Write a sequence for this structure.
């Protein structure tokens, strides 16, 4: 429903898309084992094991991961309450996460994303917000990071970031016109990341 496969294909990136389903229609945003220390590492190892089976290898053809030397560049994203497992991933997921994309999701754990952005100059943080709490927290985080010397790119009013600005910025804060429910796909957000 969020057109993630289509957006990944349109981005022309060589990547494996892993989409763990969190709680649905629940007040709790707990993603189970993914929230535990080393949870992301264990999940990616399971994915790798499946992708290395003969059946998957045959189905993937040229895209086979057989013979690869481990997990490549890891990007974590989250929509809405997905900020919780994204924060757990950068805090203690057991994997070197390089980029984080939040789709109208900066409701909490702001300190985890701030530390992530400040920890390494190769880290990239992108926060799309529609309004409300994610907007408020995104704008505050943008100011904090800018004050710490991080290259922050932000959209203001009708000024949209160019593709080049999005690529070069270490922390990008984007004001979108989509609704909360359509934040991941209405404006092709994942494709652009």
């Amino acid at each position: 429903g969020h057109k993630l496969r289509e957006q990944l294909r349109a981005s022309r990136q060589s990547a494996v898309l892993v989409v763990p389903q969190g709680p649905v229609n629940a007040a709790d945003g707990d993603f189970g084992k993914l929230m535990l220390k080393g949870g992301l590492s264990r999940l990616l190892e399971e994915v790798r094991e499946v992708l290395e089976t003969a059946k998957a290898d045959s189905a993937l053809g040229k895209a086979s991961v057989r013979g690869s030397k481990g997990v490549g560049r890891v990007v974590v994203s989250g929509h809405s309450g997905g900020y919780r497992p994204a924060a757990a991933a950068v805090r203690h997921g057991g994997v070197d996460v390089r980029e984080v994309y939040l789709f109208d999701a900066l409701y909490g754990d702001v300190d985890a994303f701030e530390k992530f952005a400040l920890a390494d100059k190769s880290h990239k943080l992108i926060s799309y917000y529609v309004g409300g709490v994610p907007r408020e927290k995104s704008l505050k985080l943008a100011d904090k990071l800018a004050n710490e010397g991080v290259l922050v790119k932000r959209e203001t009013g009708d000024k949209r970031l160019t593709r080049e600005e999005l690529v070069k910025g270490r922390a990008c804060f984007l004001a979108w016109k989509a609704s909360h429910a359509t934040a991941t796909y209405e404006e092709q957000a994942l494709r652009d990341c």
Notes: The radius of gyration is 17 Å. The CA atoms of residues 51 and 57 lie 6 Å apart. Helices lie at 4-11, 39-51, 54-60, 83-92, 110-119, 132-147, 163-168, 189-192. Strands lie at 74-79, 97-103, 124-129, 152-154, 171-175.
